[in-house]
Design brief:
Alpha-Beta Plaits; two-stranded antiparallel ribbon
């Protein structure tokens, strides 16, 4: 890998085009299985997506919890997929990763995940996903280049409760953030005594999609009984 090149993710730029997913599956070492996926930020209320790849932690939790010592980290800091001869498909790594990245591929009985396209990056080429991203949500290059061209600030330290994780991959965030603190409680619905169970309308857009999702849920026995044939 080119020594001064790093990987950066800017979720605010993701347009959900899936180009990265398709390109990742074409990587020669992935057996046709994409190692990147897009998460919906608020699936019920919008279409904003965010790319998710392995963050390549300096002290990877997935490797720590592997009972078979199947997950290795190379001398460049890249955390590799589980080694086939050792992986026992226990899914400990899937459950333990604070970023929710490793996936158990049942058809192979093997944990497979993003390996930063080590076959390409070790030869000075961009990872497949960054090479095809049309919006700049995925960027591979010198840190000084992205610091000059973006308002956001690259961060590679994350706080999960008492666990601080430093990663090889950077997330672009607000300029005043040095560490991103992530608490699962922040993502749970805030319930109040008078809170209606269905989500509110999507601001700035027709709520037709939301209404369609909840029509059947809201239909009680009386409504179903009188529904036209």
């Amino acid at each position: 890998m080119t020594s001064n090149h790093e990987f950066f993710i800017d979720p605010s730029r993701c347009i959900g085009c899936q180009a990265c997913v398709q390109a990742c599956g074409e990587c020669e070492t992935h057996r046709g299985v994409p190692m990147i996926h897009l998460d919906y930020v608020e699936r019920a209320a919008g279409v904003q997506t965010a790319p998710v790849v392995c963050m390549h932690c300096e002290d990877p939790t997935c490797a720590r919890v592997c009972p078979a010592d199947a997950i290795k980290q190379d001398d460049r800091g890249v955390v590799l997929s589980a080694a086939r001869p050792r992986c026992i498909a226990c899914s400990n790594c899937v459950l333990a990763c604070p970023f929710g990245v490793p996936k158990m591929q049942v058809r192979y009985d093997l944990m497979m995940k993003c390996d930063l396209c080590y076959d390409r990056t070790s030869a000075g080429r961009k990872p497949m996903c960054a090479a095809v991203c049309p919006s700049g949500a995925l960027f591979f290059g010198p840190r000084e280049d992205i610091e000059k061209s973006r308002r956001e600030k690259p961060v590679n330290e994350f706080q999960f409760g008492r666990q601080r994780v430093r990663t090889k991959v950077n997330i672009m965030t607000a300029p005043d953030n040095d560490v991103l603190s992530i608490d699962i409680a922040d993502f749970l619905p805030r319930e109040t005594p008078d809170m209606h169970p269905r989500p509110g309308a999507r601001p700035g857009a027709p709520d037709a999609a939301d209404a369609a999702i909840w029509n059947e849920w809201n239909s009680g026995p009386a409504e179903l009984a009188t529904a036209p044939e």
